[in-house]
Amino acid sequence: MDLFPERSRGGVGACLWRLTVLLLSVSSLPTATALLEGLYCGTEVCYDVLGVTREASKAEIARAYRQLARRYHPDRYRPEEPGEEETAHNKFLLIATAYETLKDEDTRRDYDYMLDHPEEYYQHYYAYYRRRLAPKVDVRIVILVTICAISAVQYVSWCSSYNKAINYLVTVPKYRIQATEIAKQQGLLNRTKEKGKNRRSKEEIREQEEEVIRDIIKNKIDIKGGYQKPSLSDILLCQIVLFPYHLSSYVAWYVCWVYRFTICREEYGEEEKLYLIRRYMKMSQAQFDSLEENTKQTFLEKRLWIKENYEVYRKEREEEMKAKLATDPKMKRYRRWMKNEGPGRLTFIDE
C-alpha cells in the first residue's frame, strides 16, 4: 500500500520530464559535433558552406559553388577593409573543398556517413586518406602499359641480336661462298653490264651484291637459341594472351600421353622417343633442334629413351670427358700452374 501516492506520482512525472529534456537536448546538438579537424571541411559542414541541403542534387551543388566562387575568387573579390583578403582567400579554399567533397558520389557517401556516425573516428580517417592517397589511374592500365613496354624492349633487343648474327654470318667464308653460288644459280648476280645513264658505279653494284648475299643467308640459315629470328608470338604480351591456349593444349597432350603410353601401353614413336631423350638430357627444344640429325639417330640407335640406357650413356660420357681433360695439354698446364704458382702458395722473389 502506497502511503504517499501523490508524491510517488510526482516523482515519476519529474523523472519522465528530466528524461524528455535530456533527449531533446541531445537531439538538438549541432551537426558540427560529428566533424573532425583536418577532414573534408574541418569543423564546418560542407552543405552549410555551399548553402545547400543534404538532399541537394549535383546540379544544385554545382550552381551554388559557381555563385560563391565568383563572389570570393581572389581575382574578383574587392575587400572593403584591410585584412579581409586573407579571410576571403580562406573562404574560397573552403568553398572549393566543399565542392570537391560533394561533387563525387563516393566521397559524398563517406561524408554523409561521417555526419551520421560521429563516433567512428578511425573509420572516417581511414576512408578519407584511402581516397586521397589511392592512385588516380587504374592499376590494370598500369600493368598493361608495363607489359607492353617490356614486350617492345624485348622485341627490339631480339631484332638487334638477330641482325648481329646475320652480319657475322655474312663475313664467314663458308656461308658467303654458298650464298654466292645460290645467287648465281638464281641469276641474281649474272646481270649484263649497264650502259648509258643507267650505268651504276662499282660501289653501288657491290652494295647490291652484299644485299643479295645477306638476303640469301637470312632465308637459308635457321638460327636457333638467343640469336634466332624474332617472332611476335614469343614476346611477353603474346605469351600472356596465349597462356590459356598453351595451358589447355598441354593438359590435353598430357592426358593423351598418359592414356596412350600408360594405360593402353602403346609403343613410343620416333617423336616420343626424341622427346624423352631431350627431357633426360635437360635440353630446351631449341637446343635439341640445333643438334645434327646424325647425333639424333645415334641417340635412337642406343635406345636412350629408356632410363637405364641413358644413365649408362651419361656415365660413359662423364668418363670420356675426365680422360680427355686428363690428357689435354691445356688442362695439364693449368694444373701445373695451380700447383706451382696458383692460389694457396706463398713465395718470395729473389732479387
Automatic annotation (TrEMBL):
Residues 45-115 form the J domain. CDD domains: DnaJ. It comes from the Eukaryota. The lineage of its organism: Eukaryota, Metazoa, Chordata, Craniata, Vertebrata. This is DnaJ homolog subfamily C member 25. GO terms for biological process: protein folding. Coiled coil: none annotated. It comes from Crenichthys baileyi. PANTHER family: DNAJ HOMOLOG SUBFAMILY C MEMBER 25 (PTHR44176).
